[in-house]
Amino acid sequence: MAVKKLTHKDSSSYSTSRVLFDAEEDIIQVFEHEIHKVESTLQRLDLLYKRDLKKLDKLSDRIAEVGGSWSFITTFFVVLIGWIILNAVILVSAYDPFPFILLNLGLSMLAAVQAPIILMSQNRAAKRDQARAELDLEKDIRDLQIDQKQLEILLHLKKEIAELKRKN
Known about the structure:
Radius of gyration: 30 Å
Distance between the termini: 30 Å
Helix content: over 70%
Mean pLDDT: 81
Structural class: mainly alpha
Largest sheet: none
Order of helices and strands: HHHH
Shape: rod-shaped
């Protein structure tokens, strides 16, 4: 029997072709080949998503990366506490006295702009993850087909052993 490879039309459709092995072919090599093929496909997928990003998309990804980091949160709290201490304690005639209306306005504007930008970045990441999940499903289907063929080989060997035992 010859090896019959799965065809890959696109990430949303799967071929149900069966994977068949030559008797001499090493199954480990088949697995290594499949793993390498999946890894290279995932790398190409990541490159495809990164290549097609517009400048504003890259900017939103960077904003989401920075805005979701501990360094941003720590710096943000230091600035807030500094603003409050400066206006409540240090300055005699405070620029933004208690209840810190200017500070609240700035925080509201930051939240109003930052939230949709982070959501855009998450939506792109979700699309990329969906494509990866579809590729994982395709790989799992191929693995199941390989397992099925291995089981068929083992059952055939079991029958041959039973025949040999009957003949003896």
